[in-house]
Amino acid sequence: MRMNKTLLVLMLTTAAAAPLAQADDAGSTTIGGLIFTDLTSISTTQDQAGLPSTDKDPNGFGLDVKRGYFMVNHSFDDVWSANLVTDFNFASYKASSTSTVNGGTSGEAVTTTTTVTTPETQLFIKNLYVQAHLNDWATLRVGAASMPWTSYVEGVYGYRFVENTMTDRSAFANTADWGLHALGGDSLVSYGFSLVNGGGYKNSSRSKSMDEEGRIAVTPLDGALVIAGGFYTGKRGLDTEATPAVHTVSREDLLLAWKADGLTLGLEWFDADKWNNVLTPAGTPTTTSSGTSLFGSYNFSDTAYAVFARYDDVKPTRDTDASQEDKYYNFGVSWKYSAALTWALAYKNDKVTDNLKLGNSTDSLKTQEFGAWAQIKF
Q1: Alpha carbon 163 to its chain's center
Q2: Which of the chain's ends, N or C, has fewer CB atoms near its CB within 10 Å?
Q3: Is the predicted pLDDT of residue 24 greater than 70, yes or no?
Q4: What residue ranges in 49-79 does DSSP mark as E strands?
């Protein structure tokens, strides 16, 4: 991939050398936001052979804000611009308190420790880059920007606010990362290529090498047919002096879809090698992973209503533990109230199975969710 890296660096150098257009004013700034939220009931149960089913978290009825993006874009002129997108999510931390009291018949000291898990909001920079739009075939970005594969599949899929796409949901792809990005194309052919740190947008630290991700898409038949292929290779930001990388990961991607007359039908597929084995010692078995996602939707003519469904089958350890499998599906109906607000009423079912965890017995974790989802733009 040395040639790919060289070409990207040359393109960025050309952009830096391009003369700035003389602006008549200080440019223009736009501000917006995007929120994914839901009000649902979740039931999670674990089943083990010979044991009764047990309830697990998450469980119960409540409201979630899965994603909240605040977006600022500033255009300096027709070529140069800057973009900032912040992202937040909820994490949990454990706080412990210890108290000592006198008790018992002899008055001895009794010490008790209470641990409480508390949710905490975390704020991240999702996108932060300077962009040079030289022409439709050459847009260059330096900083944290969307990766070529997941962003493209999300656009074809259309229901990101209900569920993220397969490689993102199963943690086999980053949605954004820090580095150098090039993209462009027309109504027939488009491409994206990124040279990145590899740790994702939440981790801007560098390692000894950079990773590569690329995608090329063809949309013949007036855009109705979508054919896209992609790849990823690198060390996932884990190659450091303290912990040198042992293996290089790779991922191949394919997307086939049909979008015409309100109907969307799609298939996403990936195959990954050593994805979670960058630091696995030499001589220790490594694994391959694969997944297939089928999705579809239909927008009823002259209405704002649509139906949608999806099915994922991911095998994270296909060769070392073939029994480990994640089967997921959803279906529902959506209502596009306006360009700013879309609602969905849906059901989700996710079952993760690992038969080798307890010998030849079964061990599965099943999550069911039903309720309302919303996408809010402003």
Answers
A1: 10
A2: C
A3: no
A4: 54-75
